[in-house]
Amino acid sequence: MSVRRGADPGTEGIRSARDDVGPIPRKNVGPVAWFDIRKRGLGQFAFSLNRLTGLGLVFYLYLHLAVLSTLFRGQEAWDDFLGIATTKAFLLLDVLLVFGLLAHGLNGLRLALIGSGRGIDHQKALYRSCQVIGTILLLGAALHILGGD
Predict the structure, then answer these.
(1) CA-based Rg of the chain, rounded to a whole angstrom?
(2) Distance from the CA of 118 to the CA of which of 1, 26, 49, 124 falls in 20 to 30 A?
(3) What is the mean pLDDT of each run of 10 residues along the chain (149 residues)?
(4) Whether the Cβ atoms of residue 147 and residue 95 lie closer than 8 Å to each other
């Protein structure tokens, strides 16, 4: 490998490693690689889901702040928003939010347990347990959110 004059040798090494053909096929680079499930295990799926739900929750935070700004426009603007927010389609988005919160939160709890040295040998079982608990909680939340006619 030859290093160009003035180029950072570390950057050049990374570029040449990406171009090398080896026994392992190169996978996509960047966010597209998060969802490339070829020859990946459950841990990679959990990692991708955690990133996706994290991005969704950050998006929701900004959306929530924008919605709260309707309070500055007065009671009538807020009442108009509540008329939209109580439709079934909007309530389904609330269920999606609860899914994101549960998936991200329970997986974060699992990662905290593993990071503290507990359950390292039982990562799949911990993930499956979090899925079961999350599914039960999500069904209860969905019934509560959607069932209030």
Answers:
(1) 22
(2) 49
(3) 54 68 62 69 84 94 90 89 90 94 94 86 89 96 85
(4) no
Residues 144, 146: Cα–Cα separation, whole Å: 6
Write the DSSP assignment of the chain as a string of letters.
Answer: ----TTS-HHHHHHHHHHH---SSPPPP-SGGGGG--TT--HHHHHHHHHHHHHHHHHHHHHHHHHHHGGGGG-HHHHHHHHHHHTSHHHHHHHHHHHHHHHHHHHHHHHHHHHHTTSSGGGHHHHHHHHHHHHHHHHHHHHHHHHS--
Q: Are 50 and 97 in contact (CB under 8 A)?
A: no
Query: What is the fold, at CATH topology level, of the domain defined by 40-146?
Result: 3 helical TM bundles of succinate and fumarate reductases (1.20.1300)
Domain ranges of the chain: 1-33, 40-146
Q: CA-CA distance, 62 to 60, in Å (whole number)?
A: 5
For the question of whether the overall pTM of this predicted structure is more than 0.85, the answer is no
Over the stretch 111-130, which tens digit does the pLDDT of each residue have?
888 888 887 888 889 999 99
Question: Of 35, 63, 56, nearest to 47 (Cα)?
Answer: 35
